[in-house]
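lol ok so funny story. i was supposed to be doing the assay writeup but got distracted and ended up predicting the structure for this chain instead. priorities right. anyway since i did it might as well share w the group, maybe its usefull for someone
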Amino acid sequence: MLEQESTADTLALPSAGFLRRLGAMAYDLLVVTALLMLTGFAALTVTGGVAIDAGTWWFRALLILVTSGFFCGFWVRGGQTIGMRAWRLQLIGDAGRGEAVSPARAVGRLAAACLSALPAGLGYLWILFDRRGLAWHDRLSGTRVVLLPPKPRQR
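and the output, tada:
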């Protein structure tokens, strides 16, 4: 597990680049897909093996809850999803203090990230043009994804 950086050190870290974020998203997509498949299997056991209609409101709500719980849970507890950990990224508050992300801010960030993805991913591509390397949802939620330094190798 990566150790939490001190506040001053975290603020000095560079914002994560587009390709690193894309790599972390790919890792997280694999994990979330597996979680959603397990959720579907669990729901089938509840229904006695009867197929769940695609438009069933409770099943859709359950899938949204699992996905939201994955991202918000990891962001609040250490600022790193599994993919972010693999790519040495960390989510911090961007209010000038580099604080941890609160549950409310994490939910707001997730909602803003969905909005960023809607216009053909333009909110994510904004990282390439923003002088601070922030996406739309970073700005809307008051957060920032930073690149952590490599961990020193132990002999």
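The helical segments are 7-12, 18-46, 57-76, 82-86, 103-117, 122-125, 136-141. Residues 1-5 have pLDDT under 50 and may be disordered.
back to the writeup now i swear
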